[in-house]
Specification:
The protein contains three helices and two strands, in the order αααββ. By secondary structure, the protein is an alpha+beta fold. The protein has one domain: Orthogonal Bundle (Arc Repressor Mutant, subunit A). The protein has a two-stranded antiparallel sheet with strand order 1-2. Helix 1 packs across helix 2 and helix 2 crosses helix 3. The termini are far apart.
Length: 80
């Protein structure tokens, strides 16, 4: 090696093949069912046949930032 410590060597992150399709489905469901959270959207995706868990949906949900919940005038408003 080059005299570098092994903790400095990192593998590049691998994306999954279905990440783009899953992201598109999550955004579509978030827009269709505006008040649903990531857990309910994950349940709908599992019912549709996706092999995922709620943690993966939450990670994509936060990364995309499309599903932010704001409280306006005392009401719950979802900004898509």
């Amino acid at each position: 090696m080059l005299g570098q410590h092994r903790s400095t060597q990192r593998k590049p992150p691998r994306g999954r093949d279905d990440e783009e399709r899953l992201t598109a489905d999550i955004i579509a469901l978030a827009r269709q069912y505006g008040r649903y959270g990531y857990r309910k959207v994950a349940a709908l995706l599992i019912d549709a046949g996706w092999l995922i868990n709620a943690k993966r949906v939450e990670r994509i949900w936060r990364r995309e930032g499309d599903c932010q919940i704001f409280c306006v005038w005392g009401r719950l408003t979802i900004m898509l």
